[in-house]
Amino acid sequence: MRTIQLYLSRTAFLRTLSGVAICLVGASVAAQLVRFGFERRVPGLMAIFSLGREQTLATFYSALLMILASLLLAAIAMLAVNQKKSDASRWAILSGGFLIMAFDELFS
Hints:
Layout: H1 10-37, H2 45-49, H3 57-82, H4 88-107
Helix pairs in contact: 3-4
């Protein structure tokens, strides 16, 4: 059996995820300011950056995080199967649940 090792800095990962979330909130606030503060209509601006709608950048980011969680849970399930642990099916169910939630977020 081949072993795959992945090295990832927790702080860099956390900073990246937080930075993207902050940028999305900032873009939403800016879009709200343009629309209501300056009373200007920019076609598609609210459709892309609004946090209160579906099919925006924020919902795609949320779905991406759920897909990432699903992949990590699937990796844990595979490790549990290889180690013949009894809770492997629970990890697989969790992985499937996160994948279903991601698809719901993307396609609803």
